[in-house]
Recover the amino acids of this structure.
């Protein structure tokens, strides 16, 4: 039995180590590699201490119309052109922008925040950690 | 099970792992976001897993095609799928709505469906591994 086990473990270790090589290359060279620092995310407890926040709801219009953060403006990533003007009217240099979507696994808030930074040149743009789920779980007020 | 059938099933398993590995290796940033959806690990761990897991799946898929490496590859596959099954069981138990990302395409399947799929795949991989080990013992 030992004669079988030793090469088996060697095979397992070999595959595990071989996979490490392209993984390290990906971490270095991949154009879509994730950043080790999750930039731009902010916890709800932090936002609670901010005076003037412009809330951006990056969820689809149907989800927004059901319920949203008080004062939030709807800016789904797929309807950027038709909604961005309303956002720009509400925006002011001293206002911090916080974008949210459904929860941890959605990417819409990151996409919208990235576009606001790159296409509009806004600096104070953040993504709410946990998104709408975090807001509801904290028992915060919602607008329907 | 005959050696021929074992080989064919290993090819099928290899194809499945190639598919799962490629879609994740193409966009590790998106896969890291998927991992965060499970709310089990911090971001830095999710990034490490997003970079490593797809390549582990691809290397395992390659090893499944090589007879000398097959037993080890089957053991890794079985452990991977068992890990995924445990992950989905925890996710289902916690009632978390999460995007799978297992085979790309957004994967909007429910946790119970993903759990069932992972359990079937894990059981299949363990069965193939035990068959491979029996054949190896027999040949000695």
């Amino acid at each position: 039995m030992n004669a079988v086990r030793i090469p088996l473990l060697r095979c397992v270790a070999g595959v595990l180590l071989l996979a490490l090589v392209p993984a390290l290359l990906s971490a270095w060279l991949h154009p879509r590699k994730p950043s080790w620092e999750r930039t731009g995310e902010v916890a709800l407890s932090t936002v609670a201490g901010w005076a003037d926040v412009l809330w951006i709801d990056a969820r689809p219009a149907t989800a927004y119309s059901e319920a949203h953060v008080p004062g939030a403006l709807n800016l789904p990533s797929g309807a950027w052109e038709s909604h961005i003007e309303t956002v720009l009217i509400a925006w002011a240099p001293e206002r911090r922008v916080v974008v949210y979507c459904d929860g941890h696994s959605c990417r819409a808030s990151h996409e919208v925040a990235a576009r606001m930074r790159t296409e509009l040149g806004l600096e104070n743009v953040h993504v709410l950690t946990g998104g709408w789920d975090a807001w509801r779980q904290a028992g915060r007020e919602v607008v329907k | 099970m005959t050696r021929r059938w074992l080989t064919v099933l290993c090819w099928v398993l290899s194809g499945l792992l190639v598919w799962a590995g490629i879609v994740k290796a193409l966009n590790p940033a998106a896969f890291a976001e998927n991992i965060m959806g499970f709310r089990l690990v911090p971001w830095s761990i999710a990034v490490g897993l997003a970079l490593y897991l797809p390549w582990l799946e691809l290397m395992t898929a390659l090893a499944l095609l090589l007879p000398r490496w097959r037993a080890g590859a089957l053991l890794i596959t079985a452990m991977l799928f068992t890990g995924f099954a445990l992950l989905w069981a925890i996710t289902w138990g916690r009632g978390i709505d999460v995007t799978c990302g297992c085979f790309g395409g957004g994967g909007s399947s429910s946790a119970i469906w993903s759990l069932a799929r992972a359990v079937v795949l894990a059981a299949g991989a363990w069965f193939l591994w035990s068959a491979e080990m029996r054949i190896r013992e027999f040949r000695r």
Q: What stands out?
A: The mean pLDDT of chain B is 89. The interface with chain A takes residues 25-30, 32-34, 36-37, 39, 43-44, 46-47, 50-52, 55-56, 58-60, 63, 68-69, 71-73, 75-76, 97-99, 133, 136-137, 140 of chain B (CB under 8 Å). The longest helix of chain B spans residues 111-139. Residues 3-139 of chain B form one domain.
